[in-house]
Amino acid sequence: MPVLDITLKDNALIMIHSLFLINNAGDLFLEKHWKSVISRSVCDYFFEAREKAVEPDNVPPVIRTPHHYLINIYREKIFFVSVIQTEVPPLFVIEFLHRVAETFQDYFGECSESTIKDNVVIVYELLEEMLDNGFPLATESNILKELIRPPTILRSMVNTITGSSNVGETLPTGQLSTIPWRRAGVKYTNNEAYFDVVEEIDAILDKSGTTVFAEIQGVIDACVKLSGMPDLTLSFMNPRLLDDVSFHPCVRYKRWESERVISFVPPDGNFQLMSYHISAQNLVAIPVYVKQNISFFETGSSGRLDITVGPKQTMGKTVEGLVVTVHMPKVVLSANLNATQGTYNYDPVTKILVWDIGKLNPQKLPNLKGSLSLQSGAPKPEENPSLNIDLKIQQLAISGLKVNRLDMYGEKYKPFKGVKYVTKAGKFQVRT
Amino acid sequence: MQKLLQLPVNAVNIVKGVQGVTQGQEEALSPVLTPDSGPQNWYSAVQPEELRHLRSGGTGGGGWGRGHDDLKEMLDSNKDSLKLEAMKRIVAMIARGKNASDLFPAVVKNVACKNIEVKKLVYVYLVRYAEEQQDLALLSISTFQRGLKDPNQLIRASALRVLSSIRVTIIVPIMMLAIKEAASDMSPYVRKTAAHAIPKLHSLDPEQKDQLIEVIEKLLADKTTLVAGSVVMAFEEVCPDRIDLIHKNYRKLCNLLIDVEEWGQVVIINMLTRYARTQFLNPNINESLLEENSEKAFYASDDEEEEDKKAEPATLAKRKPYVMDPDHRLLLRNTKPLLQSRNAAVVMAVAQLYFHLAPKAEVGIIAKALVRLMRSHSEVQYVVLQNVATMSIKRRGMFEPYLKSFYIRSTDPTQIKVLKLEVLTNLANETNISTILREFQTYIKSMDKDFVAASIQAIGRCATNIGEVRDTCLNGLVQLLSNRDELVVAESVVVIKKLLQMQPEQHSDIIKHMAKLIDNIQVPMARASILWLIGEYCEHVPKIAPDVLRKMAKSFTNEEDIVKLQIINLAAKLYLTNSKQSKLLTQYVLNLAKYDQNYDIRDRARFIRQLIVPTDKSGALSKYAKKLFLALKPAPVLESPFKDRDHFQLGSLSHLLNAKAAGYQELPNWPESAPDPSVRNVEIPDWSKCSSRKDRKEKKVEKPFYSDSEGESGPTESADSGNCESDSGSGSASASGSDESGSGSESEESGEETESDEEEEDEEEEKKKRKKLDKTKAKKQAEESAERCTIHTIHQISCIINFDQFDMNKITSVFSQTLAPSGSIKMYELLHRIKGEGLAVEYCFSRQPFSPEPNMVAVQIQFTNNTNSETKNLHIEDPRLQSGMRIREFAEIDVLAAGESVTVVMGIDFCDSTQAANFQLCTHTRKFFVSIQPPVGELMTPAFLTENDFKKEQGKLMGMNEILEKLTLGEKCVNEHVIVERVTATANLSRVPCGSDKECRFAGKTVSSGCLVLVTVTTKEGGGAQLTVNCEKMLIGTMLVKDILQALSQ
């Protein structure tokens, strides 16, 4: 298909030329060009690839067309398709697009087609500020919020009545300072700093319950509402646990390297301070075990399913939000099961069985048992479905990581401090 | 921005004046625009609610005209709220790709609107449509031109940004002027905007290139982190080949890197990778030679091989050991912490830098960071895995410890699964193959058939690469032949075919088994593979082969083309080996083929008939038919599609696509000999700007004989020679280097010794002068800038001389004046000449960083041979140290001629204690027990803090860590300068700028553990003073207090 390429004449190098937002149904609902306009027909190549991929997450992130390259991400059921003309590190673009999506989420609470359409003007203003001539300009949420205020219900009401704007009245100074992530003149009556240590267990367990692979992915999310220019130092009881870390740009690498403390001037509001990775397998406790037996009979077009979940290494805490998801083979038509606890649901279209257990009671282990009926005449499926486990343990960081203390310098007041720990199942899979 | 809004009143007037004209134009325009109009009711809608529900597929309603009139009216109204509403709707139109160009005149006059949001939206509109409406766009230019002169830097910047975004050729000169002006703006933010504007102008008018390069050159010299990323981006887009512009800024860019914003980091790192490839030598040059024979298959890439070939004759002669250029090391060191960045693009950029530039032994550190990225979004995973796949071929060991991180989950998208499989296959070796195969077995059971097919291929590749498991794999694959899923079977057949080709004799039963499969398998590729196998090895299955041909002849017409071709091949081969049984069948097949629809098949049939069936016409070739058809065919090599992809710069788009993308800058090959490294030397920052220069000059006039020449020309000169030395890098360089440096520092020291008396006087004079100067000038500022200047210089110098301690001595001696104003370094005796039988040894703490090991104290040792014979083999033996302490010995001194002296440097890690280091000093004849005990003040190095940092750090070291002491100042401690001098002479600390002249502050870090040591001396009326020492190590603190007290009360 011919692409009307009106931009061939300027072959200047530019990172991101245009951006198209496309929903799951294939409607192109927003376009933004940072240079001359590129016809939206270029997206036909994307649609072609989209069709070929069947699943949205199988669309190749980089698509080649005769004159352009399309680099896209899929997030919140929206494809962010950017048009590139020349060599650029693909990760650069991908990372930027994710930053755009995160900014939308930050501004509108969620990043969905409807919120983007509702706030199309703010979206446009944001895109204008985030890229200049295709090169990232202001991507820090703190600065953007000074330039363009996020919508609130109250303000949008006031705006419709008075016609006033959501653009900042004062000029932002954050871009000028050496700490571009924090705006100046922050003031709170209640000064508080909260940290959430969230750990996710990624694991693959084999049929017999042995750990094939396990690691912990942790993040420390912060919500810091402190006046002025506080300089914080967060230290751990056991920093040696942290095998591999990555930081928000505000963290001083040098101090981490020399003293194993996190020293930083925080951005205002919510942000992810750091993420870490604990790969030593002996350190990774597996909180639950799963006994399962899924079998299909040679004859009679049926099968049996029997799953029991029990606590393993829970460190004395309660396992909550336990959900077992099974992707069934295509020939499974329906499931007739009996759950001793929680509810189950089998979707015959997506072939996904979801068993929502809830809280795990160690005295009375939840069990799901019953029969599966298969498409008649179809051969017995050879593959065995694998189980995905989701769970949550409050007040526990499964790695044993503990925050020792938080110190503040540079400001006089006494902030309110808090740390919360949560362990979740990440990509936790049991093979059968 | 408010201000900018108020500015262009007359711009409005201009617009109003033109309005009549434009309206006429517009009428002419609108009919043209109407046809491509989409959902018209969009424009007539007043309720924002309605806007929302509109979809691109919406059907047309009301006319264009009315909607536009509406909007125009709103834009013309006096109410900002109406204007805003109109602009919002127009922007919404643009966002949805609808044409709104005919509103241009109505919109452009609002460029002067006072409402900031209206204005912003007008900018959005303007940038979008200016190109199409050039004449009208010019009306807005004056607004921006005025904005460029605004006192507020943000307004200047935003004016430049919009002005440069308007793609109208006529304003090129205006833009050029604006960029030039902004490039020398006071505000770094405006300069950053100027850097951003450069590529815009370049794309608008490439003829401006030369002028723009001048601006780039200027901005490259900028020292702020804000500008660095943007200007390198401009450099990459306008003149990436002008590598000469980078030389002078190279070290600065390396040092600024960590503080540059993340997007700039990526651009700078990529550029520096290319730069380093042109300027430094291949750090792996020697290893790749060694490997060439043993591991060539795995490691040597094309370019390396080529290089090796070239290098070979040279090696035969004599290979110089490789010495890394300190600048090369600087780049590696300064990028390493960025592996911890949260931004995947930055991590990838550092990873590719290490992959392309680091010595083999150091590349491994990137693996962990790359594995971490695998947890990120699937798009990031996709790109990272592609790069890991390439890397894992060349440097397999690097990812082996992380093997399990590449295990596949059933929930991974297929494209990720396939890439992980690729990496796992690349990582397979004799030791881990059993684990990997077990893992592969679970994958074969997956529901994702494409993935299963890829897994089977992966097993095949493992089997070809690792001989030990070939049979196991083959057996496993044969079992898969009975799989219910046809795709699985087909894929297995294809892979088995490839494996069998390696050793067909042993596996005739497998071939038989596969012959049976032909009845059931429908996948053409698999059928073709089986037929080929039977044909190729028909001698192993003499009974079955003709029967298969019989069956195939029956179904020939219904087969796919590739199968038909293989049937013909099979027939031909059978005809040649077993013509008795298959002659008729072959004739039959060839006849069928003769009338096939596909010309390839007809062609093949004709060709084969001529070859194998002897007729009168058939030429000499038919004699060789058997040789032609049944020649031994080499087994296929199953290799990774990622092999040799590393000739593309990793992390690049071109690498991902495995094809050159437009604008891709080839990664240059390493040069065979390094270009002149001195091009990166930077002139020492202008001394004239800081007060110390004045001091120096005055001093020079007074004492022309004292170290002046070194003071002025030393840094640049010695830096040059230093680099040359490291480049020539011969093994003996260290010895000769030490000699040189020895004589250098020796002469200076001897000078100091003899003139020490004079010096004191001179210094006093100098102090008086300084005092005068201070009074006349704004003292604080001068001092601060001096401090900064010094820091800067030292920083740069230390870059130059990094890792070469001998150069360090030469250069740093120059700085001893600025660092330690006392100038005189105290010498201690290590071995008296009488006790040492003519060998006198003295040592001093040179106060220079000991570069091979930064946490060691550098001890400069001077040997003087007072005998009349040579002393040989001077070296250290048998050090007896407290636990934790370490010594880094100096290189053995081969010969010390009679009457000569030599100076060497050794490093001692005292573990921040004043315990003595005992060791034996040996000559070729004698051994002497000696010991070095450091004064506490020598256990630290200066730390450069700002006043604020100092206060902050001091705040952290209160309580137990703070020691307060009152004292009476000695008679000579009349002013600040004496105090500074005394303190810095006692301890190796640096002065911290301070607002009050009653206070002197000093900061340092302990050498071994890096604990901060903060010293404050507060003078009071009447000779009293208070000394405060803050240090986490209380013992050090106490001892330091004692020493300083003594120094000050003398």
TrEMBL record, chain A:
The keyword GTP-binding does not apply. This is AP-3 complex subunit mu-1. GO terms for biological process: intracellular protein transport; vesicle-mediated transport. It is a peripheral membrane protein. Belongs to the adaptor complexes medium subunit family. InterPro entries: Adaptor_comp_med_subunit (IPR050431), AP2_Mu_C_sf (IPR036168), AP_mu_sigma_su (IPR022775), Clathrin_mu (IPR001392), Clathrin_mu_CS (IPR018240), Longin-like_dom_sf (IPR011012), MHD (IPR028565). It is found in: Golgi apparatus; Cytoplasmic vesicle membrane. Pfam families: Adap_comp_sub, Clat_adaptor_s. It comes from Cyprinus carpio carpio. Part of the AP-3 complex, an adaptor-related complex which is not clathrin-associated. The complex is associated with the Golgi region as well as more peripheral structures. It facilitates the budding of vesicles from the Golgi membrane and may be directly involved in trafficking to lysosomes. Residues 190-431 form the MHD domain. GO terms for cellular component: clathrin adaptor complex; cytoplasmic vesicle membrane; Golgi apparatus. Keywords: Cytoplasmic vesicle, Golgi apparatus, Membrane, Protein transport, Transport. PROSITE patterns: CLAT_ADAPTOR_M_1 (PS00990), MHD (PS51072). Transmembrane segments: none annotated. Its main location: Golgi.
Automatic annotation (TrEMBL), chain B:
GO terms for cellular component: AP-3 adaptor complex; clathrin-coated vesicle membrane; Golgi apparatus. One of its GO terms (biological process) is vesicle-mediated transport. Signal peptide: none annotated. Residues 715-724 have a biased composition (Polar residues). Residues 768-779 have a biased composition (Basic residues). Residues 725-745 have a biased composition (Low complexity). InterPro entries: AP3_beta (IPR026740), AP3B1/2_C (IPR056314), AP3B_C (IPR029390), AP_beta (IPR026739), ARM-like (IPR011989), ARM-type_fold (IPR016024), Clathrin/coatomer_adapt-like_N (IPR002553). Residues 299-318, 689-787 are annotated as: Disordered. It is found in: Cytoplasmic vesicle, Clathrin-coated vesicle membrane; Golgi apparatus. Residues 779-915 form the AP-3 complex subunit beta C-terminal domain. The lineage of its organism: Eukaryota, Metazoa, Chordata, Craniata, Vertebrata. Residues 746-765 have a biased composition (Acidic residues). Subunit of non-clathrin- and clathrin-associated adaptor protein complex 3 (AP-3) that plays a role in protein sorting in the late-Golgi/trans-Golgi network (TGN) and/or endosomes. The AP complexes mediate both the recruitment of clathrin to membranes and the recognition of sorting signals within the cytosolic tails of transmembrane cargo molecules. AP-3 appears to be involved in the sorting of a subset of transmembrane proteins targeted to lysosomes and lysosome-related organelles. Keywords: Cytoplasmic vesicle, Golgi apparatus, Membrane, Phosphoprotein, Protein transport, Transport. This is AP-3 complex subunit beta. The keyword Transcription does not apply. It is a peripheral membrane protein. Belongs to the adaptor complexes large subunit family. Residues 692-705 have a biased composition (Basic and acidic residues).
